[in-house]
Amino acid sequence: MTSVGVLGATGAVGQRFIQLLDGHPDFDLSVLTASPASAGERYRDAAKWRLDTPIPDDVADITVRDTDPDAIPDDTDLLFSALPSDVGERVEPALCEAGFVVSSNSSNARVADDVPLVIPEVNADHLELIDVQREERGWDGALVKNPNCSTITMVPTLTALTQFGLERVHVSTLQAVSGAGYSGVTSMEILDNVVPHIGGEEAKMETESRKLLGEFTGDGVSWLDATVSASCNRVPTLDGHLENVFVETSEDVTPEDVAGAFEDAPTLDLPSAPDPLVEVFEEPDRPQPRLDRMLGDGMAVAAGGIQETDTGIQYNCLAHNTIRGAAGASLLNGELLARDGWL
Ligand SMILES: NC(=O)c1ccc[n+]([C@@H]2O[C@H](COP(=O)([O-])OP(=O)(O)OC[C@H]3O[C@@H](n4cnc5c(N)ncnc54)[C@H](OP(=O)(O)O)[C@@H]3O)[C@@H](O)[C@H]2O)c1
C-alpha cells in the first residue's frame, strides 16, 4: 500500500479526500494536517464534517498534525493538498524540498512553467515536467497540480475536439455554491439570485485550459494556440458546474462528429478513472446538475445539447465540482503518479 496524507484535511475539499480515500485499493490514509488551531485535536473534534456519509472509523481518531514538513512522517509517500492557495504557496514548496510528493488542488503555481498541471485522461505526459522541476529547484519531492473546477469540467470535452483544429472557445458557466467553500457565499447573496462574477475564475479558465491542451516539449509546455474566453456565474445549485460552450474549429464538423469524438474520449485503467469519461446525452435538456453530477461516481463529465451554430458548434457540459473538480482530480493524479513510478 502507498502511504498517503491530506493537507487541509478539515476543510470542504479535505473532507472529500477523506471520503474518496475510504476503502481505496492502493492508498492508505494515515496523516491529516490542518491549521495550528486544529493541530493536536482528534479529527472528529477538529472537523465540522458536512458530507452525507459518516467520517470513516479509522480516520475519526487520527490526531491532526501541523501543516509543516517536520510534523509529517518521512515515510509518507504522497500528500494530497486542499490548502487555501496562500498557505499552499508557502508550504507546498517547503514540503517538496523536504522530499514529499504533493498532488495539489490549490490554485497557486498552476501555470508555473515547471509545474505539471494534469488531467490524466488529457495530458498524462506532462508529468515528465517533474524531471525539469527537480533539476531546476533541486527538489527530491515534486509538486503536481490539477486545474480549477470550472476548467476541469470543460477540458475533457475540448481535448476530444483538438483533432478538428480548435481555434476559439467561448464558455459561460453556471457554478454551484460548494465551489466557493462552505462559508463562501451567504444564503442572502445566492437565494433567488445569480451572481455574474467569480473572482479570478475567468482568467483561470482561459490560461489553465491552454496549458492543459498544450504540448510537452521536453523542457516545458507549449500552450495550445487557441483563444479561450470565459464568463463565470454563481447560481443557487449545491454541487455540479454546468457550462455552455461554443467552439470554432478549422475543420467543418457536425454535431454527430462531436458526439462521436466525446464518446471516444480516452479512459484510463486507474481506480478512480470513470468509463466512459464523457457521457453524451441526446435529450436536449440534459445534462442537469441534480440529475447528472454523480455519473461515474462523480468523476465523469456529461455533455449534451450538441448543435451547429453560425460559427461552429455549441454544447453543454457538466461535472461534479468537489469530486471531479477538486479532490477526485488530485486523487486521480496521485494514482497516475503511483502508476508511472514517480513516488
Ligand atoms: N470548494 C471547492 O469546490 C474547490 C474546488 C476547487 C478548488 N478548491 C481549492 O481547494 C482549496 C481548499 O478549499 P476548501 O473549500 O476546502 O477550503 P476550506 O473549507 O476553507 O478548508 C481549508 C483547509 O485548510 C486549512 N488551513 C487554513 N489555514 C491554514 C494554515 N494557515 N495552515 C495550515 N492549514 C490551514 C483549514 O484548517 P482549519 O480547519 O484548522 O482551519 C482547512 O483544513 C482552496 O485552495 C480552494 O481554492 C476548492
From TrEMBL:
<dbReference type="InterPro" id="IPR036291">
    <property type="entry name" value="NAD(P)-bd_dom_sf"/>
</dbReference>
<protein>
    <submittedName>
        <fullName>Aspartate-semialdehyde dehydrogenase</fullName>
        <ecNumber>1.2.1.11</ecNumber>
    </submittedName>
</protein>
<dbReference type="Pfam" id="PF01118">
    <property type="entry name" value="Semialdhyde_dh"/>
</dbReference>
<dbReference type="GO" id="GO:0009088">
    <property type="term" value="P:threonine biosynthetic process"/>
</dbReference>
<dbReference type="GO" id="GO:0046983">
    <property type="term" value="F:protein dimerization activity"/>
</dbReference>
<dbReference type="InterPro" id="IPR012280">
    <property type="entry name" value="Semialdhyde_DH_dimer_dom"/>
</dbReference>
<keyword id="KW-0521">NADP</keyword>
<dbReference type="InterPro" id="IPR051823">
    <property type="entry name" value="ASADH-related"/>
</dbReference>
<dbReference type="Pfam" id="PF02774">
    <property type="entry name" value="Semialdhyde_dhC"/>
</dbReference>
<dbReference type="InterPro" id="IPR000534">
    <property type="entry name" value="Semialdehyde_DH_NAD-bd"/>
</dbReference>
<dbReference type="GO" id="GO:0051287">
    <property type="term" value="F:NAD binding"/>
</dbReference>
<feature type="active site" description="Proton acceptor">
    <location>
        <position position="241"/>
    </location>
</feature>
<feature type="active site" description="Acyl-thioester intermediate">
    <location>
        <position position="149"/>
    </location>
</feature>
<comment type="similarity">
    <text>Belongs to the aspartate-semialdehyde dehydrogenase family.</text>
</comment>
<dbReference type="GO" id="GO:0009086">
    <property type="term" value="P:methionine biosynthetic process"/>
</dbReference>
<feature type="domain" description="Semialdehyde dehydrogenase NAD-binding">
    <location>
        <begin position="3"/>
        <end position="130"/>
    </location>
</feature>
<dbReference type="GO" id="GO:0050661">
    <property type="term" value="F:NADP binding"/>
</dbReference>
<dbReference type="GO" id="GO:0004073">
    <property type="term" value="F:aspartate-semialdehyde dehydrogenase activity"/>
</dbReference>
<dbReference type="InterPro" id="IPR005676">
    <property type="entry name" value="Asp_semi-ald_DH_pep-lack"/>
</dbReference>
<keyword id="KW-0560">Oxidoreductase</keyword>
